[in-house]
Amino acid sequence: MTRRPARARRGVTLLELIAVLAALIVLGAVLLPTLSGLSRDTNVQAGADLLRQRMAEARSHAMADGRVYRVTVSPDGGTVRVSPDLDSPADPDADAPFSAEDAFPKGVTARVIVDPEAPPAADSSGWSVVATVLPDGTCREDGPEVVVSEPNCYPIRVQIRGLTGATSVTTGTP
């Protein structure tokens, strides 16, 4: 007498399906806070990169155009602007000056610190002056610092060197 071979199963049982779904839910619950934390840090880094980019553009246009440019942050800290300095004389035969204004990523703000014991200088529209870049590439301000932050994240400090107009970035503590 010979036995018939067992037939292969064609599906999964309800118990197996519930076990796999439970494992996926537990894994998702563990990974979700980690992934959301990574995106917040990325937003702060993007804000610091935007500020550094605008500072570099102001410096390069000041040297190329031979005019003074100003980098400012809005009163609420949500926007950075590069524009020609209104106090500097302009060549009437020159091309239109460079100007740019960008918002930081959602939830990210910037605060200007020139002197820890004094409020930052502001232009006529209330924007905080980060740096005034001269045509030789230097900054009028000496060592201003901008703190780029978002709630529940480590802030990033962007410091501008007055003599060279170069920027350096350091990660702060919460």
Overview features:
alpha+beta; single chain; 4-stranded antiparallel β-sheet; 174 residues
Give an account of the 3D structure:
30% of the residues lie in helices and 24% in strands. The chain has a four-stranded antiparallel β-sheet with strand order 3-2-1-5, with helices on one face. A four-stranded antiparallel β-sheet has the order 4-6-7-8, with helices on one face. The protein is elongated. By secondary structure, it is an alpha+beta fold. The mean pLDDT is 82. It has one helix at 14-65, and strands at residues 69-73, 79-84, 100-103, 109-113, 128-133, 145-149, 156-160, 167-171. The protein starts with 13 loop residues before the first helix and ends with a strand.
What's the helix and strand layout?
Elements: H1 14-65, E1 69-73, E2 79-84, E3 100-103, E4 109-113, E5 128-133, E6 145-149, E7 156-160, E8 167-171
Antiparallel strand pairs: 1-2, 1-5, 2-3, 4-6, 6-7, 7-8
Strand order of the largest sheet: 3-2-1-5
Shape: elongated
Estimated radius of gyration: 27 Å
Roughly how many Å apart are the termini? 78 Å
Order of helices and strands: HEEEEEEEE
> Which class do the helix and strand fractions yield?
alpha+beta
Provide the helix percentage: 25-40%
Q: What would the average pLDDT be, to the nearest integer?
A: 82
* Number of strand segments: 8
Instruction: Provide a count of the helices.
Output: 1
- What kind of sheet is the major sheet? 4 strands, antiparallel
Unreliable parts = none
